[in-house]
Amino acid sequence: MANNQHIHCTVNSCHYWNQGNKCQANEILVTSDRIGESRGDSYDATMATSMSETPVGSCMETCCKTYVSKGSDSVKLDGVYRQ
Ligand code: SF4
Predict the structure, then answer these.
(1) Whole-angstrom Cα distance, residue 55 to residue 27?
(2) Is 31's C-beta closer than 6 angstroms to any atom of ligand 1?
(3) Is residue 54 part of a domain?
(4) What is the DSSP letter of 52?
């Protein structure tokens, strides 16, 4: 994300979360829950331009695929970095 834009997020157990409920990931992937549940940690924002589109019916069917628990080793798998 450019520095003058912000993704606001309250999920403070995420590695990319920062004070003020701001996401500090350089990019994120929001996708359908179905993809979130079925794809591994390496399936993330860096691959977004080649992904199929995933329509849903409501916000409750979407998720942030870039979420990684603080302290998790899988933080290295997604190609996303903290700004
Ligand atoms: S990566 Fe997703 S879950 Fe984590 S702080 Fe950013 S928007 Fe929130």
Answers:
(1) 20
(2) no
(3) yes
(4) P
What is the token pair recorded at 37?
């549940």
User: Does residue 22 contact residue 7 with C-beta atoms inside 8 Å?
Assistant: yes
- Report helix, strand or coil for 7: coil
- 3-state DSSP call for residue 17? strand
Structural domain contains residue 10:
no
Q: Does residue 34 lie within any of the structural domains?
A: yes
pLDDT in tens, 41-78: 999 999 999 999 999 999 999 999 999 999 998 888 88
Residue 70 sits in which domain range? 17-76
Q: How many domains does the chain have?
A: 1
11-38 pLDDT tens trace:
999 999 999 999 999 999 999 999 999 9
45 ligand 1 Cβ < 6 A: no
How far, in Å, is the centroid of ligand 1 from the Cα of 69?
10
Residue 23 carries which side chain, given as an amino acid letter? Answer: C
User: Would you say the pTM of this structure is higher than 0.90?
Assistant: yes
